[in-house]
Write a structure and sequence with these properties.
55% helix; alpha/beta; 13% strand
């Protein structure tokens, strides 16, 4: 029987740090990825949308880099991209409504739900909001 590969969620910050080499989180993100070893990364269409939105204002170069990175992610057999749907949006909205005392974005809520649904407990991010929700945050300074 084949051994099950560990799955780790890759949040928007991770994709930004991987793409923008002079980003302050680049080195911590790469170190965290190296530390966790062989894993299957999981992300969502919504996280990739947020990633592209974050790069959009950086001009042509960053827009091209972002689009190229998203195409690589989608084709990478070591990354599962969970597609967006009306249900993921509505479930994310429900969590968003339940956490009015938090600063969670809708994308964070959708990502957290995806982690719960997939049985994922570790997240490649520095976002302490995932920590507040009980996940292990893997990127630290």
């Amino acid at each position: 029987m084949a051994e099950k590969v560990k799955r780790v969620f890759a949040d928007t910050l991770y994709w930004i740090a991987r793409t923008v080499t002079d980003d302050s989180w680049n080195r911590p993100a790469l170190e965290a990825r190296h530390r966790i070893g062989e894993v299957k990364l999981v992300t969502t269409d919504e996280a990739l949308t947020e990633f592209l939105t974050a790069l959009a204002g950086g001009g042509q170069y960053f827009r091209e880099q972002g689009a190229s990175m998203v195409r690589e992610i989608i084709l990478d057999s070591d990354v599962d991209v969970i597609p967006q749907s009306r249900q993921s949006f509505l479930d994310g909205l429900t969590l968003y409504e339940r956490r009015t005392d938090k600063g969670y974005s809708l994308t964070d809520c959708i990502s957290m739900n995806a982690c719960h649904n997939e049985g994922i407990t570790e997240v490649l991010t520095n976002d302490r909001q995932f920590d507040q929700e009980g996940f292990t945050v893997l990127i630290a300074r």
